[in-house]
């Protein structure tokens, strides 16, 4: 097993809610910064007055991924004064299924022994050997969780089923590295929808653009603003009034996609977009095609567009594209505009 796989985990922590309804950060190995701890406490459902529990949430902050698994204490247990607890794992990689599985094992260990020491032993076993094994608490093997499976776990077919031809807006925004904000009051719906979107630009295989669970809080928004393009999820309806944060706004409960006024020129649609949109819808609506096949169909079309762009760029100096090169082709205005902005996103533009 590659050593680098085990080096992806950064820390494991524990948040508890006690019989007095107090929620505390009680343990962490190794230590995390006060800033990150504040963010993680905000993401933890036990920190809120609401009785609603979120079994598993994940997100990204300052290039680290966090995974929170929350459990209600069940008898028999060594935890006499605790009603609920959350296992917090931070890591360098996006792999929700991997860390959800490992957290479930750690939850069972903690429920049984009531001591972070046993949890730390499990964490160190995975860190050093890539495996955490026990008869009564279940086993976890790190190599069972390929990152490509994590990339493919979201459903593009579901996205298209919800938005149909408007999916082309999402595709265009992702291709041009624009800022997409998604709103839904339920965090689970946000996570499920947002994690699928980077697959529309499969040639990049870049899930670092994903920030699926963001609060309207200064530090988190500063972190978001430091990224040039992103897919960000919010549960706060106030985000609809924050056009400074998005080029494209997706209102999931209302099935609406809106392009912000300031982004309309770059996002202008034409014949090429219609053609791509039809391809996406046709592929996704084919009951015999799997999500992987739909992603491949879109990817083939994307590669065709990119190879045309590269051949246009090769006509210019330094294999870079200029607006003059594009204009000499007498392309439809929307296609010319899209290719010009795409060249910028793909670093093929001569400045």
State the main characteristics.
Beta-Lactamase; 351 residues; five-stranded mixed beta sheet; alpha/beta; 3 domains; elongated; single chain; five-stranded antiparallel beta sheet; Rossmann fold
Model description:
One of its GO terms (molecular function) is small GTPase binding. It is a single chain. With 351 residues, the chain is an alpha/beta fold. It folds into three domains: 3-149, Beta-Lactamase (2-Layer Sandwich); 154-263, DENN domain, C-terminal lobe (Rossmann fold); 271-345. The protein is built from 13 helices and twelve strands. The strands form three sheets. It has a five-stranded antiparallel β-sheet, with helices on both faces. A five-stranded mixed β-sheet has the order 9-10-8-11-12, covered by helices on one side. Strands 6-7 form a two-stranded antiparallel sheet. The longest helix has 23 residues, at 291-313.
List the helices and strands and how they pair.
Elements: H1 3-6, E1 9-18, E2 23-29, H2 34-43, E3 56-61, E4 64-72, E5 82-91, H3 96-113, H4 116-129, E6 131-132, E7 140-141, H5 147-151, H6 156-163, H7 167-175, E8 179-183, H8 187-194, E9 210-211, H9 218-225, E10 230-234, E11 248-251, E12 256-259, H10 271-285, H11 291-313, H12 323-327, H13 333-345
Parallel strand pairs: 8-10, 8-11, 9-10
Antiparallel strand pairs: 1-2, 1-5, 3-4, 4-5, 6-7, 11-12
Helix pairs in contact: 3-4, 6-10, 10-11
């Amino acid at each position: 097993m590659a050593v680098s796989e085990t080096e992806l985990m950064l820390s494991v922590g524990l948040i508890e809610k006690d019989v007095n309804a107090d929620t505390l950060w009680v343990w962490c190995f190794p230590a995390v910064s006060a800033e990150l701890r504040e963010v993680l406490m905000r993401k933890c459902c036990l920190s809120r007055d609401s009785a609603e529990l979120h079994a598993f949430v994940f997100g990204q902050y300052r290039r680290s991924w966090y995974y929170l698994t929350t459990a209600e204490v069940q008898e028999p247990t060594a935890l006499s004064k605790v009603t609920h607890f959350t296992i917090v794992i931070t890591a360098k990689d996006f792999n929700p299924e991997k860390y959800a599985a490992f957290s479930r094992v750690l939850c069972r260990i903690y429920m049984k022994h009531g001591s972070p020491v046993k949890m730390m032993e499990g964490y160190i076993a995975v860190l050093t050997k890539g495996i955490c094994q026990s008869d009564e608490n279940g086993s976890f093997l790190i190599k069972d969780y390929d990152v490509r499976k994590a990339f493919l776990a979201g459903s593009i077919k579901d996205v298209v089923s919800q938005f149909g031809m408007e999916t082309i807006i999402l595709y265009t925004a992702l291709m041009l590295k624009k800022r997409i904000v998604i709103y839904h009051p339920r965090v689970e719906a946000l996570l499920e929808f947002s994690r699928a979107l980077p697959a529309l630009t499969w040639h990049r295989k870049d899930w670092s653009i994903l920030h699926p669970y963001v609060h309207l809080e200064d530090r988190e928004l500063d972190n978001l603003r430091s990224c040039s393009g992103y897919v960000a999820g919010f549960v706060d309806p106030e985000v609809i009034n924050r056009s400074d944060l998005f080029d494209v706004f997706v209102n999931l409960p209302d099935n609406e996609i809106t392009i912000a006024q300031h982004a309309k020129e770059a996002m202008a649609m034409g014949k090429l977009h219609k053609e791509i949109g039809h391809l996406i819808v046709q592929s996704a609506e084919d009951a015999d095609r799997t999500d992987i096949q739909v992603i491949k169909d879109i990817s083939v079309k994307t590669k065709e567009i990119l190879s045309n762009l590269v051949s246009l760029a090769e006509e210019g100096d330094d294999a870079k594209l200029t607006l003059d090169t594009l204009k000499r082709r007498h392309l439809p205005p929307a296609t010319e505009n899209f290719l010009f902005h795409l060249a910028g996103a793909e670093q093929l533009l001569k400045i």
